[in-house]
Specification:
This protein has about 350 residues and is α/β, with parallel strands linked by helices. It has a single domain, classed as Alpha/Beta hydrolase fold, catalytic domain (Rossmann fold). It has helices at about 45-50, 105-110, 135-150, 160-170, 200-210, 210-220, 225-235, 245-255, 285-295, 310-315, 315-325; strands spanning about 15, 20, 55-60, 70-75, 85-90, 115, 155-160, 175-180, 270-275, 300-305, 335-340, 345, 350-354. The two termini are about 35 Å apart. GO terms for molecular function: acyltransferase activity; hydrolase activity.
Length: about 350
């Protein structure tokens, strides 16, 4: 892989990365980590299968005693880049597999890329778990950064992940160099969930992981994809829900009230890039335009003909935008060049910069 990317082999270690030992935990000839639900074998998307094979669990201490350690799931970089690392969060109740299409493209840009599972979601070992409220999610991410990443990062958050990124950047500014917020969902207020009876919260969580609900979500998110792809992407999107502690962690987050970062937005000091889809059916683009006005140091780029997850629908474009921004590329309007099936393309998708 290093040769394919034009990188020196000295940047790549088979088992050791950035000073810590990596365990593959491979279960069988399929190459998937043993901690993933067995249903991973049913997934057909080649990009999801490839990224799933790279998921690791790293130790993250979330309490004062040595027993308070969460083996935290993420995809680790294959090399250390010259620029600051790019750290990818995910949407509400999702996982690092959300970045299956864009992750290898970001690596192709020569970046050091991490895809992190937020505490309570994804594939971390939560058999013994802390609360999964906002404070715990924030502290867990900080400890992961402090233990393993250790340098200021470009933090990327799509949808609710944008709220996670803003909350983290305000509380730990030393850890964040820049922010990339994709279709940001930052004005939702879920405090009403705190009044739910616990039994009802569990019922809602059970419904949330059901195939019909996940299927419907894919229909809203993606336009014009085949039924077979909807089914496969539904299996990808709900894979983490099959872990035995998912419902408990989800209910813990729901009853805590969720994220409300509206009062933190003007405290963000980092330079931010907003990437917004014009055809998003989940988050109204007016919300992003409001955020653009309220953030002290932000630029905004609109992506036409795209839904809620441009990093899946148009990964070449999103990878290019993230790579340029993380390296402080000029923000002037320009053609976007990328490669699709080894064919050089230019200006297939027009970017509107605001």
């Amino acid at each position: 892989m290093a040769v394919a990317l034009g990188l020196p082999l000295s940047h790549v270690g088979p088992r050791k990365l950035l000073g810590f030992r990596v365990s593959s935990s491979v279960a069988d000839g399929g190459g998937f980590p043993s901690f993933l639900p067995k249903e991973v074998h049913k997934i057909k998307d080649p990009f999801a299968r490839t990224l799933a094979q790279r998921i690791q669990r790293l130790p993250v201490q979330v309490g004062s005693s040595e027993s308070c350690i969460v083996m935290s799931s993420c995809v680790t970089p294959t090399f250390v880049g010259d620029a600051n690392p790019v750290v990818l969060l995910h949407c509400f109740d999702s996982s690092c597999l959300e970045w299956r299409s864009a992750y290898p493209l970001l690596e192709g840009h020569g970046l050091e890329v991490w895809a992190i599972d937020i505490l309570g979601w994804g594939f971390s070992d939560l058999e013994t778990r802390p609360p999964c409220n906002v404070a715990s999610k924030r502290y867990h991410l900080y400890q992961l950064w402090k233990s393993h990443i250790k340098r200021p990062m470009t933090l990327v958050g799509p949808s609710l992940g944008a709220a996670v990124a803003i909350d983290f950047a305000v509380h730990f500014p030393e850890a964040v160099d820049k922010l990339v917020l994709i279709n940001p969902n930052v004005y939702a207020n879920n405090v009403g969930f705190t009044k739910l009876p616990k039994l009802m919260a569990y019922a809602m969580a059970s419904l949330l992981k059901s195939i019909p609900i996940r299927w419907y979500a894919k229909v809203l998110i993606f336009d014009g994809i085949s039924l077979s792809k909807i089914l496969d992407w539904t299996n990808v999107g709900r894979l983490h829900c099959l872990l035995p502690w998912w419902e408990d962690a989800t209910v813990s987050f729901m009853l805590s009230g969720g994220y409300d970062v509206s009062g933190q937005i003007k405290k963000v000091k980092q330079k931010a890039l907003l990437i917004c889809s014009e055809c998003d059916k989940i988050v109204d683009i007016k919300s992003a335009e409001r955020l653009h006005k309220e953030l002290p140091n932000a630029t905004m780029q609109k992506v036409p003909n795209c839904g809620h997850m441009p990093h899946i629908e148009k990964p070449y474009l999103i990878a290019k935008l993230i790579a340029d921004f993380s390296r402080s590329a000029t923000s002037e309007k320009r053609a976007v060049r990328y490669f699709l099936n080894d064919i050089s393309c230019r200006n297939k998708y027009t970017i509107k910069e605001v």
